[in-house]
Specification:
144 residues, 2 strands, 4% strand, transmembrane, membrane, transmembrane helix
């Protein structure tokens, strides 16, 4: 199609097999091409490179636009830096602060170790009946 040379079918693709953006690039150079026209791999690489160049240029333009907007905002000095952690802490109610403290302790190693220790003492007191106490017979309810 592109150079009117003869190629094996494995050396390229038909236009209908290509993505629409590549088809548009090829049709721009060859407006009379049809979906069943063949393009060799060598020429297809050139069009794919052209497509990549367009994508990079588009990204560059978008980045340039964003940088200009940010520079404009920074130049005005109208932005405000906000410490969201401080704002959150100031907006918490007493109940929320207590819940956070309980959750912080309940998920700590200090809580886990103390809880296991209390459970072991509880079971030892019941099994050995120290001091004549036998208040939770086997199987232990274990503080539930």
């Amino acid at each position: 199609m592109v150079d009117d040379a003869k190629y094996d079918i494995v050396d390229g693709l038909t236009l209908q097999e290509l993505e629409p953006q590549l088809q548009a690039l090829i049709r721009h150079d060859y407006p009379h091409s049809s979906p069943t026209d063949f393009i060799c791999s060598e020429h297809l690489v050139q069009y794919r490179m052209q497509k990549m160049d367009q994508m990079i240029a588009k990204d560059y333009q978008q980045n340039k636009k964003i940088n200009q907007q940010l520079s404009h905002i920074l130049a005005k000095n109208t932005y405000q830096v906000v410490d969201v952690n401080r704002q959150l802490e100031n907006s918490l109610t007493f109940g929320q602060r207590v819940a956070d403290a309980v959750a912080r302790f309940g998920g700590s190693w200090a809580f886990i170790i103390s809880f296991v220790s209390i459970m072991l003492v509880w079971m030892l007191l019941n099994v050995l009946q120290l001091f004549g106490l036998h208040f939770d017979p086997y199987p232990f309810i274990l503080l539930n």
